[in-house]
Amino acid sequence: MHTSGGHTGSGPASGGLVWIVIALACGWCVSAPAADAVAEGFRVESEVYANGAQEPVARTLTLFRGRIAWDFIETVPSAASDRPQAGAAVTEIVLHDPARERVVVVDPVRNLKTQVDAIRLERLSASLAAWARRSDDRLVRWAGGPDFADGMKETADMVELAGPRVRYAVEYAIAPSADEADSYRQFADTAILLKGLMRPGGLPPFPRMAINRRVAAAGGIPTSVALEIDPGMAAFTGRAARLRCTHRFHPRLLSSDLARIAEAESRVAAATVVDLAEFVAAPQADD
User: Fold this and answer.
1) C-beta separation of 5 from 199 below 8 A
2) Which of residues 40 and 192 earns the better pLDDT score?
3) Angle at 26 between CA 22 and CA 30, to 5 degrees
4) How far apart are CA 98 and CA 184, in angstroms?
5) Could you tell me the pTM of the whole model?
6) Average model confidence (pLDDT) across the chain
7) For the range 48-56, what are the long-range contacts, defined as Cβ-Cβ under 8 Å and sequence gap of 24 or more?
8) What whole-number distance in Å separates Cα of residue 78 and Cα of residue 274?
9) Does pLDDT of 45 surpass 80?
């Protein structure tokens, strides 16, 4: 899940639609191998909960095959929504392709896609850090990093990071391999930066990325992730004061996953290319 990323409105970028993306990895459950587990790779199913709610606000399925990751993002209709409760569907597909140094984002409803190059995310990271470190707000300035050692506590399966008016708690389990742990870290870091570029808001991503490095260095993948932020700051940024994510991990791809990847590849090929500004600004299909 990505509960940290972007900035608080007056930094290098502003505006954008509400976008809930899961880049913080969360509750980990290793499932028994299924009969249709057919391919090398792994899958992670995630759900995001806000402010102690019993129902998730978003779900994702992330499929890792080789060094490529496919992220299928669902926004779950709320009880107060006019949309059918059974109508949750994939609202965004994100292709993470580090070998080609790119991320491709597809809106399957509008049949649009946009590409973000790695260098653009690197520049965003540098500009966010510079902006945060100049902020008058103590929390934002702290989140600009670069050093979080003083607030970090570690055990054999947990990393906790506390700052001014904020606390991260990340439990993790050892991944089947160091390569899988590193693949997940790279995916999570990129997803957080992508969120900051496309849908600004919230804290700068650097505390979460520091935790990602610690977990990956231990050979782990996050298991449960919680973020608690001062209610006043949460209200200012328009984000939840408490976020929690749950995760289910499977060490192989399923035959249905391969079919989903093939369909996503077709959608990437068929979608109309637009620049990032047009992709973010275009009206949603149900507006």
Assistant:
1) no
2) 192
3) 125
4) 12
5) 0.81
6) 82
7) 48/1, 48/3, 48/20, 48/22, 48/243, 48/244, 48/245, 49/243, 49/244, 49/245, 49/246, 50/240, 50/242, 50/243, 50/244, 51/240, 51/241, 51/242, 52/242, 55/79
8) 30
9) yes
Tokens 């047009």 correspond to 278
Biggest CA–CA distance in the chain, Å, is: 56
Specify the 3-state DSSP secondary structure of 285.
Answer: coil
Residue type, 147: D
Pairing of strands 152-154, 112-117: unpaired
- For residues 232 and 8, the model is more confident at 232
3-state helix, strand, coil in the chain (%, to 5): 30, 30, 35
- Encoded tokens for 78: 């709320």
Beta strands in 119-251 (DSSP E): 152-154, 158-163, 166-174, 220-229, 242-250
Give the number of residues written for the chain: 287
Confidence at residue 89, expressed as pLDDT on a 0 to 100 scale: 75
Q: What is the pLDDT of residues 64-88, one digit of tens each?
A: 998 899 999 988 765 544 444 444 5
CB-based burial label for 183 (10 Å; 0-12, 13-18, 19+): buried
Under 8 Å between Cβ of 117 and 101: yes
- Is a pLDDT exceeding 80 seen at residue 287? no
Q: Which of 227, 248, 225 is nearest to 26 (CA)?
A: 225
Residues contacting residue 105 through CB under 8 Å, at least 6 positions apart:
92, 93, 94, 95, 113, 114, 115, 116, 194, 198, 279
Q: What is the distance between the alpha carbons of residues 198 and 220, in angstroms, rounded to a whole number?
A: 28
